[in-house]
Amino acid sequence: MSERAMTSNQTKILAVLAALVAVAIVVPNTNSFLILLATRALAFSILVMSLDILLGYTGLASLGQAAYLGVGAYLTAILATKYQFGLGYDFWLVLLFGIMVGGALAAVFGLLAIRASGVYFLMITLALGQCVWGLAYRWNSLTGGDNGINLRQRPKFGAIDLSNEVAFFFLVFVIFCISLGLMYTLVRSPFGRSLAGIRERELRMKILGYNTWLHKYIAFIIAGAFGGLSGVLWAHTAGIVSPINIELTNSVDALLMAVLGGAGTLVGGVIGSFIVFGLREYLSTLVPWWQYVLGIIYVLTILFLPTGLMGIPERIRQRRARNGNAGKPKQLAPAATS
Amino acid sequence: MNFWLVLTVNSVTFGGLLFLLSAGFSLIFGLMRIPNLTHGSLFMLGAYFGATLLTGVFGVKLNFWVAAILAALGVAMIGALIERLLLRRLPGDALAQVLVTLGLSFIAADLCLMVWGGDPINVETPPWLGGFMRLGSVAFPNYRLAIIVIAVVFAIGLWMLLERTRLGAMIRAGVDDPDMARVVGIRVSQLFTIVFALGAALAAFAGIIGGPILSVYPGIDQDMLPLALVVVILGGTGSLLGSFVGSIIVGFIYNFGQALLPELAYFVLFLPMLLVLIFRPQGLFGRQLP
Fold this sequence. Notes:
Number of strands of chain B: 2
Low-confidence stretches of chain B: none
Oligomer: heterodimer
Largest sheet of chain B: 2 strands, antiparallel
Shape of chain B: globular
Mean pLDDT of chain B: 84
Number of helices of chain B: 11
Number of strands of chain A: 4
Low-confidence stretches of chain A: 327-338
Order of helices and strands of chain A: HHHHHHEEEHHHHEHHHH
Strand content of chain B: under 5%
Strand order of the largest sheet of chain A: 1-4
Distance between the termini of chain B: 47 Å
């Protein structure tokens, strides 16, 4: 039984790798519009996956995740425009700073948010996110207020000029792959397993002697750090950083992408991100009321597809099994964690 | 001196509006255990409905208060439908319910943008409240004073409803312990619909009577929702007194913050919330919900 599970797991990893290779081959050969679209979706996916660590693996629904993207993006933009920093080889330092500032913000916010659970956690993270939004919106001298900050150029180092969209796509792609790998390792590690234990039943984990607060706090900081990383990439992808990036809508988008793809799967969030970015661009050329379509998709997903797109094969299998042996007692489905 | 007086009146006025908005939010949260994230949209819908009724439908211009009440009733219907048709389908799944309310708020925001456009709509002050009241050298707009009176009247009315009526007793029982309330024969699920509709009506009413001060514009939903959240976190969920005190505090901080520290106005708004979270996580007047 476990051997079969192992092989199915390997198949999944192979499928993801194949999909990544396909993206790396196909996307650079399309037009610049699609390259930019894929770059945006990949950069945002890092945020969605970071949220999935909280939502899918730890059971904490954060509604302020865009704040971490925001601090990373603002840091990048301010360093680039005010200090001309991060436009050469020092871009790698900015990446590091982005990770650090995201993690540091999460370390502060986590102290307040991790005390709460369930909907209280959701409300507090929402309010904290709005707090960051308020700063960005009003602190004109630093953030440019409502207008935001325009980044005039992308980094250039050695022979690589990131203003070339294919070069920039590959940079984002590689960082995305590394992030996916790191987060996958994290959720498969003993630490990640204890997070899943907390999600399933926190009290039991406490009784078993786990410091559940610390586990959640560390997960929160890690998610914040990845959020900061995605912010650095986002700033250079979009070329402008403004309070819109921190708006509640953006946090919600990230959350719904994770739910649409399937929470607790990491890749699900990436699929959700590609679908939403793609739909948004595609629908907006077709109909003026495209935004309702997205809103309705969100509502329908939650009503009828709570396990997301990644949960569909499992649901079909369950239905088949139920029809196949109607007389036998129902077998409990394993939690969709991998 | 005058500056401070005017600022104080403005703060109390804004606090009064916030109370109307957050009382329903707090009751819904207390009873149904979910933050209703459509609350800002209900506020906005009320404001837009009211503004439309005021400028005239089919050539009939309505009186301000008639328009406000009709808008509130309309939005109460919408609230009841949301609860009956959508939230009811997701029993016990708080996250899904919250996400559905968020999805709805997006749909509502786009709908309003399409119907009423992107420009702010000014709502005229009712004519007989248009003047000023002079107190020494300071002039207070009558309308702002009227809002304070309305908020106090509503606060007393809601308190009477909750403390002195059978329905109120059932709601309080539901907030304290829904399972036990069910056991003693209270139809809690029916209460959900009633409280949701009541909260929606209050939010919509706040939207329209706030119109002459705030005007109505796309995005007002997202401006008001976090304020309601802060009020409820400050005051404690399901507590009327908590919403009242929380609203006044937030009203003061918001207005004084805007005037004294414009760059940090939103930031200081969240400071008291953080302090409360650290020292009294259930809110100033809240009880720990099971």
